[in-house]
Amino acid sequence: MKKIILSALLFSTLLACKNNSTSPNGSLFETTNEANANESANSVISYYNAFIEYDSSTSKKIDNLLNSDYSKFEKMVTTKQKSNSILTWIAFTGLKTSTTVGYGTNQVDLLTPESYLDTSLASKIKPLIVEMSESFAATKNTYEEFKKYYVNEDYKDDNWEKGSQFLNDIDKNTITFYKNRDEFLKVIDANVSSAEEKILEDHPIKEAILHAKKTLKTVDEMVVQVADEATSMETIEKTYATLEERVKTSKEINQEKLKEQNKLDSFTDFYDEIETMLGSIRKAKRDGAISDNDYRDINYKYSNVISNYNRFVK
């Protein structure tokens, strides 16, 4: 089974203020003007939010393909026999994805990062977005071509040769998609953190927001680890212990400030979901390995963790 990791952050840590389309054109916070610094920070967050919305939609569709019909395609091509299983053909259904995200004055064009980010960062980001967009489109197109090939029974003419090529193309393009997605998150991470710090300077629950963000990063690391069969149980144990400590220290955050901001329940729910996920990991650890069923259970609970995190930071 291919272990596919859900998109890590369905929303950004913060929602930016109304975006100004003027490019920052310079280092992120190299300015003595407080208004300009805040505007640059908001611009980074706006762009990042748009990317996360785009990635949430595209990754979900690719995940649906790799976790459902793909294995049936693979079996048919390998055995050179038509599948007895039902093929759903629903991986790419739903709203059409676009690199232009949002509406009106809040619309963000991901293919023009220079309008939102400093010149240096934008030049690194743009090719990653282009590659993601192109590889997603190519994956969708190949999926649709495989459907025609299957429905029209063209595999009878070439003994599944073209089916094998379709599989290779799906593998190549999905790997390209995730490689560029992960590189984007790596490249922009420090800038997003700086922008968040700037926006959160005087926020009454800054400590709680940053604590939750750091905790979620550790949760993400855990999910990556359990998805990889090569990860040692010792590594998983260490990350598990870190998460247990994060849950413990969350209870030391100022509860009154969270109550005042109507965020105590969502903050608590976020950490409760992490404890629930840790229960599944603890159960798997006793067996000395993460089975496919364990992973599905952990990944499902991971999606609940993300949902509660998003509710807290909205």
Characterise this structure.
The chain has ten helices and two strands, in the order H-H-E-E-H-H-H-H-H-H-H-H. By secondary structure, the chain is mainly α. A hairpin with a 6-residue loop joins strand 1 and strand 2. The chain has a two-stranded antiparallel sheet with strand order 1-2.
Provide keyphrases for this structure.
single chain, 314 residues, mainly alpha, two-stranded antiparallel sheet, 10 helices, 2 strands, 67% helix, globular
Number of helical stretches of at least 4 residues: 10
Secondary structure category: mainly alpha
Kindly estimate the percentage of residues that lie in beta strands according to DSSP: under 5%
Q: Note poorly predicted spans.
A: 6-13, 15-32
The H-and-E topology, N to C, reads as HHEEHHHHHHHH
Q: Sheet with the most strands?
A: 2 strands, antiparallel
Shape: globular
Tell me the quaternary state.
Answer: single chain
Query: How confident overall, as mean pLDDT?
Result: 87
**Rg from Cα:** 22 Å
How many strand segments? 2
Strand order of the largest sheet: 1-2
Distance between the termini: 35 Å
Percentage of residues assigned to helices? 55-70%
Write the layout of secondary structure elements.
Layout: H1 34-66, H2 69-79, E1 100-101, E2 108-109, H3 119-151, H4 155-158, H5 161-199, H6 206-227, H7 233-250, H8 255-260, H9 264-286, H10 292-313
Antiparallel strand pairs: 1-2
Helix pairs in contact: 1-5, 2-5, 3-5, 6-7, 6-10, 7-9, 9-10
What's the short version?
By secondary structure, the chain is an all-alpha fold. The chain has helices at 34-66, 69-79, 119-151, 155-158, 161-199, 206-227, 233-250, 255-260, 264-286, 292-313, and strands at 100-101, 108-109. α3 (119-151) runs antiparallel to α5 (161-199).
